[in-house]
Amino acid sequence: MKAQENKTGLPLVQLGITRPEELTGLFADLRGSFDNDCACAHDESAWKVFRDRWLGRKSGVLTQVTDNWLKPATPVLKRVVGQKLNELRAHVESQIEARRAAIESGAEEAALTRERVDLSLPGVIRPIGSHHLIRQVLQEVEDIFFSIGFSIVEGPEIETPYYNFEALNIPEFHPVRDDMDTFYLDLPKGVPAPLLLRTHTSPMQIRTMEKQKPPVRVIVPGKVYRRDNPDATHSFMFHQVEGLAVDTDITFCDFTGTIEYFVKQFFGPGVKTRFRPSYFPFTEPSVEFDVSCIFCGGSGAAAGGGVCSKCKGAGWIELFGAGMVDPAVYGFVNYDAKKVSGFAFGMGIDRLAMLKYGIDDIQAFFQNDVRFLKQFP
Ligand code: PHE
């Protein structure tokens, strides 16, 4: 190519060409070097350089041939140079165009292979999450109470002492406040009332009755907080479902019937239930509700001999606290204690989940180890 370029830079006389026959070899060489050049233009940018080298208007090879060979040619040579130049130009132009088309379709083909969607490839498997076991158990509990006419209400986790204590018949110096190990909020100076993290879902009994006249049938799922040191059965935050039913003719029988129905739905018809007397300031009478041990079937004995480790040989497991609403509570919500009666209960969801699914450490719920969570899809 270099040699040709040099040749096209010189007039024919200087190349020593005087006879028309000599032009044949000269043009054949030029065409050969064009063909070589053409074969090297593999992509679009190389093709552009190649095109300009041959067709560039100012200094392209064909312009040089016109300027240096044709224009100054002697009359004897001029006609043949013109003819050969035309032939060469036709060849150059058609080859350059053909090359462009080839590169373009090649690029398209390459792009097609590159971008082709291979439908036979396996898809990307994205793991689907699942509801946390606590959420699942809440759902189960809600479904059971839904089916017997309860509805769901939710309330604030930050409460006033009035709703968490006073209106539940727990005045300021009542000793049960000590059991509650409450978290009080560290508030800026000037904020009038103290605020606390609710220690139970019972404040929603008051909030619900304030808003609504009897009949009331609600359950309240939610988080509660107590200053407990974490261990296998304690956590500073856990979940409760509160229940409250108030109407003009609710008796202790309605209460026990409802609770038993729930427990049998939740744990299965085989479980036995019992009430023990207990104390809560906002229920009278108050009870502690037990089920026969789910692990040893109530026998108190472990399968391999010895005592059942879950109920410690008692055959019973304490489930939750409950009772008939204390008439004093009605006074706080403008209900007529002579006309209405009702019951309330508060159960720990974490505890229900542990019993039903055989989990022996409450902390497992909050550590969020995927290997644990995956067992409850
Ligand atoms: N709020 C009580 C607790 O957290 C449980 C309870 C609720 C007892 C409703 C009686 C009635 O211990």
Sequence stretches where pLDDT stays below 50 over 5 or more residues: none
Give the biggest sheet: 7 strands, mixed
Please tell me the overall pLDDT: 90
Bound molecules: phenylalanine
Strand content: 15-25%
Q: What is the rounded distance between the termini?
A: 74 Å
Order of helices and strands: HHHHHHHEEHHEHEEHEEEHEHHH
Compute the number of strand runs: 9
Give the overall silhouette: rod-shaped
Helix content estimate: 40-55%
User: What is the radius of gyration?
Assistant: 47 Å
Enumerate the strands of the largest sheet in spatial order, edge to edge or round the barrel.
1-4-5-9-8-7-6
Structure characterization notes:
This protein has 377 residues and is an alpha+beta fold. The chain contains 15 helices and 9 strands. It has helices at 2-8, 12-15, 21-40, 44-55, 61-70, 75-115, 133-146, 161-164, 176-179, 203-211, 252-267, 327-332, 349-357, 364-367, 370-373; strands at 151-152, 158-159, 196-197, 216-225, 237-247, 273-280, 283-292, 316-325, 341-348. Strands 1-4-5-9-8-7-6 form a 7-stranded mixed beta sheet, with helices on both faces. A two-stranded antiparallel ribbon has the order 2-3. The model has no long low-confidence stretch (mean pLDDT 90). The chain binds phenylalanine. Phenylalanine is lined by residues 200, 202, 242, 280, 283, 321-323, 344-346.
